Amino acid sequence: MFDSQDVINYLLIISRKMASHIVGYPRMGPKRELKFALESFWDGKSSADDLQKVATDLRCSIWKQMTDVGIKYIPSNTFSYYDQVLDATAMLGAVPERYNYTGGEIGFDIYFSMARGNASVPAMEMTKWFDTNYHFIVPELGPNTKFSYSSHKAVSEYKEAKALGIETIPVLIGPVTYLLLSKPAKGVEKSFAPLSLLESILPIYKEVIAELKAAGASWIQFDEPTLVLDLESHQLEAFTKAYTELESSLSGLNVLIETYFADVPAEAYKIITALKGVSGFGFDLIRRAKTLDLVKSAGFPAGKYLFAGVVDGRNIWANDLASSFSTLQALEAIVGKDKLVVSTSCSLMHTAVDLVNETKLDNEIKSWLAFAAQKVVEVNALAKALAGQKDEAFFSANAAAQSSRKSSPRVTNEEVQKAAAALKGSDHRRATNVSARLDAQQKKLNLPILPTTTIGSFPQTMDLRRVRREYKANKISEEEYVKAIKEEINKVVKLQEELDIDVLVHGEPERNDMVEYFGEQLSGFAFTVNGWVQSYGSRCVKPPIIYGDVSRPKAMTVFWSKMAQSMTARPMKGMLTGPVTILNWSFVRNDQPRFETCYQIALAIKKEVEDLEAAGIQVIQIDEAALREGLPLRKSEQAFYLDWAVHSFRITNCGVQDTTQIHTHMCYSNFNDIIHSIINMDADVITIENSRSDEKLLSVFREGVKYGAGIGPGVYDIHSPRIPSTEEIADRINKMLAVLETNILWVNPDCGLKTRKYAEVNPALTNMVSAAKVLRTQL
Ligand code: GLN
Ligand code: ZN
Q1: Is the ipTM of this complex over 0.95?
Q2: 3-state DSSP assignment of residue 245
Q3: Residue 481 and residue 509: Cα distance in Å, rounded?
Q4: Nearest CA to ligand 1 atom 1
């Protein structure tokens, strides 16, 4: 017979061994409940209480779900009303002056003003979170920033879970990462280094830690993802400084330093594993698996925990459990049996929420996938297997799905594989150089100097969305649909002629999304119903899933472009999304390198380019809005990425005649570091987002970068409802004329007009065209 002590001991052994951890979890809810609650609150349609109720329910159901699965280390404070970095800013009381914060616990008022601006002050800046499609609110700090403990959210979430009987690990953005992601506040010297404020923020961290301890926390997780970047030695030293300084406050607590999005460079690994007050380290073992080699070669500190991120938080594929299991066994042999914790590679907020809500995917594809809820189960199954309680049925179902994915004819298309493989190592570019091409094009197009154009989309009205929806749902016939879209195109063409724009667009009324539109017509793509991922605040994106070799069964845009061209004597741009952007805005297969998938897409787009050309379209724009954002985090990998990304773009148009003008468009203003790759794309004309950073772009050309192709730096910001005046636009064009040749400059807005209203677009474009006309008379 067992006595009760035996039972308790047994339970202790089991619970110690089944070590599973989740870095973070999506906050939006399985059906974007938080999004709708936030937007209704912002619109004044519901109360703060209503919003809080939705948030509480979401947190509670996530914690319960992880508890039911059996996760041992469940995170708290990974929920956020807007953004986790903004939460840290609130915790530190680092509210920029313009919000008139006077102290006390920060409420929705100040919090959402910082996030979104209000009637009198603009929002804080937002930027991309590492190489994800999530955007965080950038802290604005200066030598005079006053810090005070102003949001007790971490503690109240911990207590909230505890009240439900659930023990959690409170998660905080680590102090060094917080500062490294900050920027100098307005009016502060650009050279100011926020990292110099380390001493000032640590006292707040100490207060939070003390409160968490008092509330009964036994672990605390500091997210320090900047550790995976190429840091300078003084930045690395800051980690030693910070955690040494916090050591005494942290005593009695287990401390986890969590990293993600890449492996930790050897230098950083040495520094953090030497930290005394830290009990465990979380590593991403999916992206660049070199940390594994480090653990093997450089060793792992005795008595500390390794949180092994073997379940991918950035993708939607089911884990290869057998392979993860053998990785884990190898690690266990190094770090010791009860010191290995199975975890996710990063927060699951970067993947979709729950496969259960996918009603349109077929069962075969579904068996290959795991969203956040399923990943939690995978983590636990691996932990159980390590503890000697392998769920054989679960593992063998997983193995069967893995092999069905490998052998499925839906995944492999030999012909595509061969064609893509043949591209590697060779170069593809147009035979004639760009200035000769521009001359040949000009003879045909006969454009004025400073030609005007737009980026592609025109305002998407409610009516338009309804027409597309009804067509999709088979509520209106194809004939009715074509008629409605044709009318819309006609309207947009006539409008552009009235405005006297030189190179026209059809307005993209048939597209709801520039990637989805193409994905739906290419093979190898699947679409979810609820596979939303937070992009920023309440905004979510629903990336397509690329599961198989990509091919183009038939022309995708020729019908509409031809129709649009037939309505006008002016050149009509054919409008395509480029391969790199399709890749970067999708969930990409993990069974072949990204560049191979990209080459396949490039070949499909190449066919479309050729069909457009054959249909008489003389100007073709291939958007690479997301080329810059796919840039790898580590410098050592950037050249390789840029090489295949730019090559993929060139593949799409290397075969066209000299007289066919290839345009491309890029969003995101940070081009200076990749300007040579942009030139290497060898497009005839590039239009770029620029309106929020004229100076930065101009400085590239001032520094003597030779640029011979056509270029249209956006002359006004389409992200704002403000209407720019003719003088203002002319002024900006003049600034560009000072550094660029007159004959290569184009005049255009900085992105598509899809999100604007006609009441804004009409006057803005009127002013844009008249600015170009005024300047033409002066040149
Ligand atoms: N052609 C697209 C449009 O105008 C480009 C959008 C983008 O760059 N994000 O909508
Ligand atoms: Zn754009």
Answers
A1: yes
A2: helix
A3: 11
A4: 456
